[in-house]
Amino acid sequence: MNNMNGQNILYTKKAIYVLLVSFIILMSGCIIGSQRIDAPIVEESTPSSSPIGQDIDANMTDLDHAERTFIQLYDALSKKRYEYALTMFDPTLHPDIGWESLEQFTIPEERSNKEKVLEQYCNAVGTCVPGTTIRSSQKDSDTFELIVQYKDIVFTPCCDEQGNALPEQTEFTVIVKKVDNTFKIITPPLYIP
Length: 193
Description:
- The protein is of the alpha+beta class.
- The chain has a 4-stranded antiparallel β-sheet with strand order 1-2-3-4, with helices on one face.
- Strand 1 (131-140) and strand 2 form a beta hairpin.
- It is built from 5 helices and 4 strands; from the N terminus they run αααααββββ.
């Protein structure tokens, strides 16, 4: 009789274990299925067609176009679509940057290939990830300033002049220029030394 009670307890423990595991699996599917996705759905476009970042929608303001270009550029970079990303990115339009700041991560023989430069830069800095616009403003007729946050990127600067720790930085500035009725991000992906 003692042996049967032991078996019943064993079967009961196994049944509880199976139910518990089943419940966890079921609930994890519910949790994953209910997570909110903040990133907008971006239509795919091939580089040979007119890139979405270059299309002008008469119902959108220039500021809307600048924000959309940011979202599409970082979507393309995160998917390693560097040729397409180049249709929306031009650091030579920035007065202080240019391609030289990105080329340091590329061997000299490949520096004339801007797609390769962008790929190597993104691989080195690890910040070519989707982002979200927090606020935006139009600085002049063709320049837009976006304050953005990148997915999972927090920058903790060392310290100020007195050696005091500085707060974490989660918002970053991105500049967009309108050139010949197209929008170009002129700020390179974030470099965190």
